[in-house]
Amino acid sequence: MRKFNILTLGLSAVAGLMMSGSVALAAGAGGQIVERDWSFSGPFGSFDKGALQRGFQVYREVCSGCHGLDYIAFRNLADLGYNEAEIKAIAAEYEVQDGPNEDGEMFARPGIPADRFPNPFPNENAARAGNGGAYPPDLSLIVKARPNGANYLYSLLVGYGEAPSDMTVPDGMHYNSAYSGHMIAMPQPIYGGDVSLAGEGDTSMEGLSADVVTFLAWTAEPEMETRKRTGIAAMAFLLVMCFVSYGSMRYVWSDVKK
Amino acid sequence: MQTQKFKSPVVRWIDHRLPVFSFMHHELHEYPTPKNLNYLWNLGSLAGLALVTMIVTGIILAMHYTPHVDHAFQSVERIMRDVNQGWLIRYIHMNGASFFFIVVYIHIFRGLYYGSYKAPRELLWILGVVILLLMMATAFMGYVLPWGQMSFWGATVITNLFSAIPGIGESIVIWLWGGFSVDNPTLSRFFALHYLMPFLIVGVVILHIIALHRFGSNNPLGIDVNGNQDTLPFHPYYTTKDMFGAMVFLTIFASAIFFYPNFLGHPDNYIPANPLQTPAHIVPEWYFLPFYAILRAIPDKLGGVLFMFGAIAVLFVLPWLDRSPVRSGRFRPVFKIFFWLLLADCVLLGWLGAKPAEGIYVILSRLATAWYFFHFLIVLPMLSLVEKTRPLPQSISTPVMGGAAMAGSSAPREKPNA
Amino acid sequence: MSDTAENKGRRDFIVVASNTMMAVGAGAVAYPLINQMNPAADTLALASIEVNIGALAEGQAITVKWRGKPVFIRHRTADEIAAANDTVIDDLRDPESDADRVQKPELLVIQGICTHLGCVPLGQKIGEVKGDFNGWFCPCHGSHYDTSGRIRKGPAPTNLEVPPYAFVSDNVIKIG
Predict the structure, then answer these.
(1) Separation in Å, CA A156 to CA A186, A209, B404, C99
(2) pLDDT for residue B139
(3) Which residue in A245, A250, A253 has the most chain C C-beta atoms within 10 A of its own C-beta, making it the best mutation to test that interface?
């Protein structure tokens, strides 16, 4: 049996190249992106529970007026470290439409853990009408739905400022250094000090922005911690398996004359 | 019957009436395999592993998926969030498609280098190209199912390729769609076909294996097996080797699934399909990029489509384009250079497929496309005539040069009706 | 895989280790493939419903859907309650006193699923067959239930199940 030959290596290298080629174009496209270290990045990353809870508060008090969270149910908040009673209490603060009742009418009732977060607008047209024609996208998947999602979102939140003098920003638009084309319909959402946090925490614009990004990274991939933990076990097993099956192969092949 | 090969009387009883055990023993156990195969011969069994993985995870996903424009995206998110280990199954399926193509592409280039397409293995090769085509159709339709932005616009662009056919193109596209745009009827039929086609692939794979076992595997020397001293029984030699290969493959595969599951995907596919807005950059999945580059290189709608399909069509006739009697690239010094140039060309096409169709990229795409066809249609036939090949070893087990059997004279592994 | 004669005792430690680990790995892979068919998180979360029983007059019964299956709620008459209490418990196939099956004697809440093979018994609507014991009768294989929903005759092995429920107020119960 020969050792790895050049063709094997060459073809594998090419496969790797091809795959990363498709990713190269995911970057780029416009704005300036700040790269940050996130608690959840890397194979061993996990969500910072404190940041998740603070981020959830920021979402509730700042974002939820316009942006929905369609794929998250109150029961999912257990991941943030809330217990059942707390989740019930949070859910009950929301009004959820239900029905029809015996009279055939739709009615509002307090939310229960099984409900998903109610959308701030009944439909897309209402959302556009309420926001000068722009549609505030649902936030549950936003971190996965943008290239370099977490960093992009953070850069967007802290990217507001004065437009350069050679740029005219029309009414209803705002200058943002991270946004592609640098003009965004969403007004600056976080200035710092917008939220009086329940616990300790940095209430600067950067601190709150980072927290809400952490929260939205969780809403996009609530399975992430389980995934990475399973992955480490799987990789450990497979690596051992590689050695053992290699040994087994060598043993079987030991009597073959080259 | 001389069947002392099975100890168990139950197995013997069954085998006497239904010789499945003999068949398996013959094809998977004693099957004589050249003893000099390198690791590139692992890719065939890996492709089989990938196919089985895709079918198993696919059937599971179908249990939870809803093929309706109003529910498809949401049902995929439900799989990711609520179904027990649904995220794992979906990520395996999603990344599995990419890894299946990686394996198959390496498998194809291995065949190209060692001349595995040459007599008497022409049909084996052609069946392989059929599998590639079926895989492409399956992968394309599967990518539509999550009904994200890339799904929708990918489906729109690819189905529109057929509108290039003169005269009947428009009608064909409307027939494909079942409407006047990609919509619910399109999604339902793509789902049905996406479920069906893997089983067609299995069928062709079985034919591929039957054809393979007729003359046995080619080998890095490209010369025919010259008796028992050149071969080893498949089991345990190649079963253990395939097992090792599978473990290495699974380790790489697992690292993608668990740590970078969306690395090969496109973020836009996490935005629900919107028929009124096309994403700024639409690109196909990476495994289609070289073909996409060829499509865009030709400044004519019909021409682009023809060249793109031609890039695969040319593979069908490859056994008759390359007439050199020497199979392995090891003994063909000039062919070897052109092989690496072709590989580089394909990589270049893949890279260009992901670039915007403007400026220098267009020119490069045209050059690369031209080279691709030049290689198959001009270089290979010419080389068959003029290349001075190096002397072949006598046999696999005697590395003495000179006097090997000519390609094309191989004997089948067993005589029919014998 | 094979243990045949020409396999000349190759099974050394490393081969056995490799095959054993392979089996363990296969088991680990099988788990998610099987477990995915269990109820998903959203299904499990949809647990409870509330039912207003204020309008349910004595002798009447209603059927509500809970977790995709019917729940029978019957406002029992004094005769029915008496009949349920007069039964000799030791004679029953699945001995259970009526008091153990109700929270308030007049209100019986049971799952309308025959414990034999899962059909929905008759006896809810006025005029339907109620069986030999004036409770419910399953038409599929002829199980008779009494006014407490206990099995009295026929193939069913156990009494009709009582779902978990609680009185939210006098007129509202919460099932689940």
Answers:
(1) 10, 9, 69, 65
(2) 97
(3) A245
